Amino acid sequence: MNSVVLSKTYPQPPFCEREVLRYAGCKEADKEVVALMNACLQEAKDKLSYKVCYRIFSVKTEDELCDFGAFRLRSKDLAVNLKNCRRVILFAATVGIELDRLIVKYSRISPARSLMMQAIGAERVEALCDAFCADMAKETNADLRPRFSPGYGDLPLVCQKEIFSLLDCGKRIGLSLNDSLLMAPSKSVTAFIGII
Amino acid sequence: MFFSEYLKKNIVYLDGGMGTLLQEQGLAPGEYPERWNITHPQVITKIHRDYYDAGSNVVCTNTFGANCLKFSDDELEEIVQAAIANAEAARVQSISTKEKFIALDIGPSGKLLKPLGDLDFEEAVRVFAKTVKLGVQYGADLILIETMNDSYETKAALLAAKENSTLPVLVSNAYGEDGKLMTGASPAAMVAMLEGMGADAIGANCSLGPKQLCGVAEELLENASVPVLLKPNAGLPKSVDGKTVFDVTAEDFADEVAALMKKGLRAVGGCCGTTPAYIKTLADKTVGFKPVSIVTKNKTVVSSYTHAVEFGKTPILIGERINPTGKKRFKQALMEKDLDYILSEGVRQQDKGVHILDVNVGLPDIDEAEMLKTAVCELQAIIDLPLQIDTSDITAMETALRRYNGKAMINSVNGKKESMEAIFPLVKKYGGLVVALTLDENGIPQTADGRFAIAEKILDTAAKYGIDKKDIIFDTLAMTVSADNKAALATLISLNRIKNELGCHTSLGVSNVSFGLPNRDAVNGIFFALALENGLSAAIMNPDSADMLKTYYTYKALKGLDENCAEYIAAADTFTIANAVVSEPKKTAEEFASELQRAVIKGFKEKAGEITKALLADVPPLEIVNNEIIPALNTVGIGFENKTVYLPQLLMSAEAAKSAFEIIKAFMAGEEKSAAKGIFVIATVHGDIHDIGKNIVKLLLENYGFQVVDLGKDVPPEQIAEKVAELHAPLAGLSALMTTTVPAMEKTIRLLKEKAPWCKTVVGGAVLTQEYADKIGADKYAKDAMETVRYAEMITEGGDAVC
Which end of chain B is more exposed for a tag (fewer CB within 10 A), N or C? Predict the structure, then answer.
């Protein structure tokens, strides 16, 4: 089966301001909040990168066992998610470390801006994942299952270690894992996508 | 022959890819290639031998990820020993007649360094040191540090190599398509740092093909005075029938690398996707190429983790505001370890356009080494300007230089024997541009001749330590003109002579000249202009001074350093407004007061500060707090609790209130401190690095008059308990975002109950619930920051100990 780790860099996906505000915990925004969001978007925009690395595996599921050939995982929920799929895309996506710097910077001098930068990061990395999925749906000419990440359902966070070594995340897209299994850059996603 | 000798006179051919070849031989996905040194020695030896036979002078051991984070100490030793033995066997077997060397290969640790990651800098140095020592023990000829995508980790690795071996060290970074490292450094910035620390060659490898790395290679060649190396990929990987295929052929690869060799590359090889065939094609095509001689670049530079700043092109501004001298508010911040205040001074100066930040945190009663280290680490986490480390405490200087992520400016050395003996070894080891004051055991000479003579002495002594004159910048000492009317002249003449006769750059603390005179800014501005005209390269200055900025921008515009006068035009507004007399109609205190409430509610940060300043003329500080700020905060707080105000708005108001408090604090600095409502120690627990929630709680608590001691994130239980006990704090707030770190929270609470039984614990964070909080024994679960404030008020008003 395919054992190649590939990387992609995307142009900036379109922004969804409503999503940014939602992540910032804002149901309705007055003009001061919108101004804050725009100022943050302006500052963050050019500091973001959109990188993905991925690998396609074959998959067989049985009860709670997912067998990817090169490795196996025990997770009932993932097995349900991947049911009837014969192949799966395993990917890692990140919008880069510069946003983390902005978050850290403003956490020291302006928590409101820091919160907004967090929200922008959350929206950005989701937008990147969407762009990647749309791209892969086209490339594989198949329907894709919803993304399924470590930490969802019974898929333990600890499988991040395996994912990182399988995808060579450090070398490919500059993504690393800390002792608490958190990713740095923080605005990053790893997930499985079943190919139907 | 030793490698360093060979490198001096020859082009060095390095090897090509290893990982891709091992995958072809059956290395499974996720399997550690380093273990193959032990399990498949013949495969590894064969690959090395093929490279030697293809024409490589250097093969790199199969130890890319061989470090003690991935392997136990025993296995690590076994791996390094076997890896070098495999290379050695290949060297013996090879039929090539070329000089052959073995490089201990060191790749990234796989972890990101603090503060954005969780690997401590010194821990990283220790990790690399272990591998280095083994490489030395088992007989490597040189060390290749490669594929590093973070400047800070590169520094840790190079420091480990230098401290634990005398082998030549080649350092190669992985640059992205934007020509920068993942963490932002440009090639010029890397050259500044690595050359300063004594790297024997500097280069780039991996990530891209030779064509895409062309710009990076050229920038390295432009800036480096040491050999430049390049090991590109065979282009980009593609998937063809389930196999990795790279899109640049051996022929094209060789042609593209050869073109760069003509421009000056001195060590060449390949990375991912390249094979012995690529190296052979390259070696064959470039037979007879003469090594381009390496020209020493006479560039005076400092660098941050992103960019280099070069002296001599346009005047450099060094912001002087991070310094407690004569600043009550700054001293107070240092005593309280209020890093946020120091950081905001840094950001403010950056926004004003300075190029470098001076960092001085010396106060008689504090541990300066610790404070300076903390300040440097925190500043370089969020501000991408190079720092000038300013201290007379040698221990503090070394501690800070060691941790500095780049090539720092060092403030300062002088002509005294003792000073030079202490500072020059640090410059040699860590790199740096050192400010040299023209004074010595006999004081500051009154004449320019005397200062010039000291400068010559300093240069001579520096040369003995192997420090080039480009890394020394002279400060000819601006003296008070009101005390001696020839003082400014002596300064100007000596800097002119140092610039023109010694060919060195100069820097001045400009504002000393006006000490004791009225309207000092006017004097400083003109003196700055005179100094620039006499060749001054940099000024340590106050970016809040309109006169200084006026001189700076005008000078650049007049000297042809500002195209279309664009910078002047952009800046002109700011320095005229700063000087203008406010001519608005005078408002009454009542008008100001209601405006202040509105500013806080609306979250207008600057306005809240300005109005408070105006109010303080007529209204006592406490009245402003109690009658204006607190009611405004309450309005917003109640709105938040009723869900009519959302989190960003709550924070914006809190920041506006803070900016008002900041004005009041500065106004009252030095006065007897009004009793805080109580001390609240807060921290994000061990293992967790999420601190936004904690920071929100801190801001609000401060707004409501609590003294908050913020221990930061990832804080061990012992440290929290110790601090609470030391301060006899009545309240401790703990935050955790992840289920995996709740046990650390539980442990902290247990320890607090034991060491500080009087203290109430409040917990919060995304994963916590009332149930969880009860289970781990917290006194209070707060669902948001407002609830924490309400609880804190209840506790402190309820008659519990208030310190």
Answer: N
